[in-house]
Design a protein that fits this description.
The structure is a homodimer of 303-residue chains. By secondary structure, chain A is an alpha/beta fold. Chain A has twelve helices and nine strands. Chains A and B meet through helix 7, helix 8, helix 9, helix 10 and helix 11 of A and helix 7, helix 8, helix 9, helix 10 and helix 11 of B.
Amino acid sequence: MIFERIAIVGAGLIGASVALAAREAGAAGGISIYDANESVRQRARSLGFGAVFDDPEAAAAEADLVLLCVPVGAMAAAMGSVAPALKSGAIVSDVGSVKGAVIDAVRKLTPAHTFLVPGHPLAGTEHSGPDAGFAALFKGRWQIITPLDDARPEYAAAVEKLEAFWRALGAQVERMDASRHDVVLAVVSHLPHLIAFNIVAMAEDLESVTESEVVKYSASGFRDFTRIAASDPTMWRDVFLNNRDAVLEVLGRFSEDLAALQRAIRWGEGETLYALFDRARRMRREVIEAGQDTPAPNWGREN
Amino acid sequence: MIFERIAIVGAGLIGASVALAAREAGAAGGISIYDANESVRQRARSLGFGAVFDDPEAAAAEADLVLLCVPVGAMAAAMGSVAPALKSGAIVSDVGSVKGAVIDAVRKLTPAHTFLVPGHPLAGTEHSGPDAGFAALFKGRWQIITPLDDARPEYAAAVEKLEAFWRALGAQVERMDASRHDVVLAVVSHLPHLIAFNIVAMAEDLESVTESEVVKYSASGFRDFTRIAASDPTMWRDVFLNNRDAVLEVLGRFSEDLAALQRAIRWGEGETLYALFDRARRMRREVIEAGQDTPAPNWGREN
């Protein structure tokens, strides 16, 4: 057991998975749950995630770790709702996909007798809500911790305790600077999702090809994009609003490269195309070798 | 048995899979194989795809169906190499991802005593070469046939026979106009691949984030793009060179929509973002309902 009691604020895919994983791993003596949405609380109760409270302060009062599992734009409100109840020495952490903006919003609401240790589990699926949670979600996945600039030994101890908790849930822990996190995630996660949202929404209102044709023949490439484009729209709206600078920078680069590719197609520059496609192919091999994806063709889908 | 003997020209992923599927289904009495690459022929021999010939004319001489399974840019050469040997009444087909340009290149090389019936199986994986082939590749997938404008009853019979062959291999057959095919495929296949190639190649030479960071954290979205970007570069070069107009048109639309999305991020237009992401999510549900992808989270990947 890492913590006597944890409180999870927000019982969606991530919050639910933390509850299930912590119980399975025996990482928490007790688990308190709060969600601002009444029907989610109801569902959390029937799914047996832990002790579900109708009041955020009541949920957080006894907790040694309070984990904010809400969309990035709702972090400040979540923190404000539990702050008055936090006990001395409590660790507050979060699972937001953006770290700079969350730290800016939450830090000033953090009581002096508690420790704010921001984090981000690189784990999830295209599904959302309490029913989407499962205990194995964090197994083998990265948990990035972005500690504040706080030299107190008690703070260092809080960081280590939080890291031990995530390790108990099966994650690999990595420390990173918050601004570095936001740039790296803009590349590996935020831009890919943005591109996927864009192509899928575009295909829906083309005039030249009907939506039913797109759906019917989607297995020839398009369907791959629909998966990540099915992720929670509120979560992603908040990511783009709160990691704007890093996303716009990498998006600018993407558009620039795409314009060059467009030009190569227009002018029939076969060698340029071949060289670029060959380069992209090598990256896949590295991803497989790093154990970050399955080598099974089509991800092992039956068809 | 649909055909007494078929000849497959090109023993890569598709050619190899046709050979294996035709044998398993008993759709061909005999299978002849030719590949312009000697080491591929060698491999085809040891994998036992059929009777492997070192000469294209010898492979095609007895065949009732000659199936060209080479990249789009190599179709004319493949057709030229077998044309002198084609027997009277033979059906010639292909598996090219572009139909207009292939028909333009191949039609004029087709002997008058044979029937050209172009086609395109919407099936494949990110792997290529003879070892990537497997018999189940076409099961439940679409086979698009784009018949020429030929009113002879013998031609109609040839089209039907080819369709029966693909059905025997497990495919669902659909007839389509060649130019319509090229527009639809530009949307559902060519653009998605282009976008994937672009983002993966871009990530490889970013200055702000190292390649090893991209690989390490790729499971948060990026890895999905590396899969289709691992497809055969020669095949894809030829697709873009030969379906230029349709690809440039849909790419123009993609870029336009992406610019609007960029603007919404820059100006913090949360409602615009939410509405677009929500729309994209609905498309995923349609793809699942149409049986075109698995509903399993993360495609059932372990992690």
